[in-house]
Write a structure and sequence with these properties.
Blueprint lengths: L12 H6 L1 H11 L2 E5 L5 E5 L2 H8 L4 E2 L17 H4 L9 H10 L4 H5 L2 H15 L4 E3 H6 L1 H11 L9 H9 L6 H24 L5 H11 L5 H32 L1 H9 L4 H11 L10 E2 L3 E3 L2 E3 L5 E3 L1 H4 L34 H18 L4 E2 L21 E3 L1
Parallel strand pairs: 2-8
Antiparallel strand pairs: 1-2, 3-5, 4-10, 6-7, 9-10
InterPro entries: Cyt_P450, Cyt_P450_B, Cyt_P450_sf
Protein name: Cytochrome P450
Family: Belongs to the cytochrome P450 family.
């Protein structure tokens, strides 16, 4: 085995944002793992080949617990304990305990019961913009659909629903020139959930958050910080990934009119189409950072214990060693195994809900707006300036 020294990435950071998939191809060709200097000046390992990423996602020696990072080697985004005690920072047995408490709410069978309310929300959102002849599909459709669904599921009253998109934007793509904005967003989120949990304690209802409060208070299976962190993560993840998956899928169809024609002609393709959209341009280019608990071989390269490892899901899903013509959108693709929603014990808890929402969002949009087209030149579209979230800032369309 060999240890790769610090070196310049085969692609500059700007290219990872401007041309991510071309950059990923260069990473895969250049080697199995790259130890580079990240934007924060600290070392980080990038793993980009499908086989290595898939194996690493399920390797228990790669910990999500930040206590396994080397001192001074990882900075990350500082969250208060009330938000930090979440599944994205945990290993078993705590991860197993907490995931088990909430997983029953997201089984395929239970999620299927949400089909009718999700369909109703999608129709209402399109009813609102249909007379206008044009819309921003992110602000008017892809964003409000999942946030409405998850707020209904958690039991967030309509009058208490704040600008979650503004808060999550500050966390995912913080403005380095305005660090106080991210801190203000964190404080607002903590305050919001503290008030909401207090209300559920006083007036429990038939919703997921009331059930979690009961687990905390009556069964003592959650700490208060774990309860708040879990509620935050459910809301954040259910919104963030789904809005980008819907937006990216619509753009992929508009970029590939022959695939749009095929899907309109055969609506039954929608299930396989969702998997292809997730593979082709998924919402999360990177898995959550991990830390080896011991020196670890990845693709024949030794990654020392305690260093920061980023598994590049967006690259793995375009690896020609796993997928035929990976840069081609093919809604009838039979190859499976994309990693857009993870793999192993940290596989996306809300995957069934994200699939259902995306399926209904796309099918309803295509059925109701047969003349859907971009309302701006293609080169004017902009993605969020983030390596961690792959999503459009806006998607203006006419119909």
């Amino acid at each position: 085995m060999q240890t790769t020294p610090d070196r310049t990435s085969p692609v500059p950071p700007a290219e990872l944002l401007g041309d991510p998939y071309g950059s990923y191809a260069l990473l895969r060709q250049d080697g199995p793992a790259h130890r580079i200097t990240g934007p924060d000046g600290l070392p980080v390992w990038l793993v980009s080949r499908y086989a290595d990423v898939r194996q690493a996602l399920a390797d228990p020696r790669l910990s999500l617990d930040k206590s396994h990072s080397l001192p001074g080697n990882y900075r990350g985004f500082a969250l208060p304990a009330a938000l930090d005690a979440n599944l994205l920072n945990m290993d078993p047995p705590d991860h197993t305990r907490i995931r088990r408490l909430v997983s029953q709410a997201f089984t395929p069978r239970r999620v299927e019961r949400l089909r009718e309310p999700v369909q109703r929300i999608a129709d209402q959102l399109l009813d609102a913009v249909a007379p206008l002849g044009r819309a921003d599909l992110i602000a008017d459709y892809a964003a409000p659909l999942p946030i409405t669904v998850i707020c209904d599921l958690l039991g967030v009253p309509p009058e208490d629903r704040r600008d979650f998109r503004a808060w999550t934007d500050e966390l995912v793509t913080p403005d380095r020139a305005r660090p106080e904005a991210a801190k203000a967003a964190v404080a607002a989120i903590v305050g919001f959930f503290a008030q909401l949990i207090a209300r559920k304690r006083a007036e429990p209802a038939d919703d997921l958050l009331s059930a979690l409060v009961a687990v905390r208070d009556q069964e003592d299976r959650l700490t208060e910080d774990e309860l708040t962190s879990l509620a935050f993560l459910i809301l954040f993840a259910a919104y963030e990934n789904t809005v980008h998956l819907i937006g990216n899928a619509v753009l992929a169809l508009l970029d590939h009119p022959e695939q749009l024609v095929a899907l309109r002609a055969e609506p039954a393709l929608i299930g396989s189409a969702i998997e292809e959209f997730a593979r082709y341009d998924g919402p999360a280019p990177l898995a959550i950072r991990r830390f080896p608990v011991e020196d670890l071989a990845i693709g024949g390269v030794t990654v020392p214990a305690g260093e920061t490892v980023l598994l590049v899901l967006g690259s793995a899903n375009r690896d020609p060693q796993q997928f035929t013509e990976p840069d081609r959108l093919d809604l009838s693709r039979t190859e499976s195994g994309h990693l857009a929603l993870g793999h192993g014990i940290h596989y996306c808890l809300g995957a069934p809900l994200a699939r259902l929402e995306t399926e209904i969002a796309l099918a309803t949009l295509l059925r109701r707006f047969p003349a859907l087209a971009l309302d701006v030149p293609r080169d004017e579209l902009r993605h969020r300036p983030s390596l961690r979230a792959r999503g459009l800032l806006a998607l203006p369309v006419r119909y």
